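Hi team,

Below is the intake form for Zinc-binding dehydrogenase from Stakelama saccharophila. Please confirm the fields before the structure is written into the shared record.

FORM ID: S-0412
PROTEIN: Zinc-binding dehydrogenase
ORGANISM: Stakelama saccharophila
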Amino acid sequence: MRAAVLTGPRTIRVDEVERPEPGRGEVRVRLQGCGVCASNLTPWEGADWMEYPTPPGDLGHEGWGVVDAVGPGVADPAPGDRVAALSFRSYADYDIALADQVVKLPPALSGHPFPGEPLGCAFNIFHRADIGPHSVVAIIGVGFLGAVLTRLAWLKGATVIAISRRQSSLALAREYGADHLIPMDDHQAIIERVKDITDGRMCDRVIEAVGKQWPLDLAGELVGFGGRLVVAGYHQDGPRQVNMQMWNWKGIDVINAHERDPKIALRGVRQAVDAVTAGVLDPGPLYTHRYSLEELDAALDDTRDKPDGFVKALVTLA
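The structure came back. Fields below:
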């Protein structure tokens, strides 16, 4: 099979490698595609903790496809079932997943891409945010994750303030239900605008979905007394400083919304499948750019640089 191998910073080759065989309790998925996650960017650019070359297919963790083989002891899913997989080497033609870490996709989703992991991540973040029908919610950073969270908050009946750098992202937030749009360009101006919107009370919930220091600082400023700051951005480029005096004074809850319990991760994917199947959420417009496996380097560069209109990249495999 083909598999992408990261051989060094910003250097990828596609190798022909042996197709893996499923062991006990495992299934093999013939992948149809894999989403490109922003968490790939630090390994792509090169980090002190990275070891090269990576295992074949490594870093790809947003795959979906069709089960084509099962290991001993697996009765469900069966060969032929289309699934979203929680697996970790999906920049390849095939990947191995635990049988209890895949979610079957219904016929209604046939022919549609379904990167289950990031969709499930959004549902789990939303659960941790505890947004109510009268909550005032600020979402800082409207990419794929921020757009889905905007939609979920709108569906709940919350008032949503979308804050993002690009005008195209703000337009997307409006389409997905945001009530207020604020360009992320001036720290104090953003604070003053949110004060105006909330009559000085600030926000019940603030979701930081960027993964950088300034948006985290801003999130602390925007959350109101007794509110909740939800860290959804993936902070992987070093330590962060926080204004603990302000956090203490406001009496806020701070939630790191990155789930590591496989059962919870799976729950989010199932909720996403149900929502998309029911037509409650349409993620299709968010899949803006598609690449072949041989173009994975371009997909990663565009995920970093965000050309006009970019939201999420998919690598198509079949």
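SUMMARY LINE: Residues 262-277 form the longest helix (16 residues).

Thanks, M.
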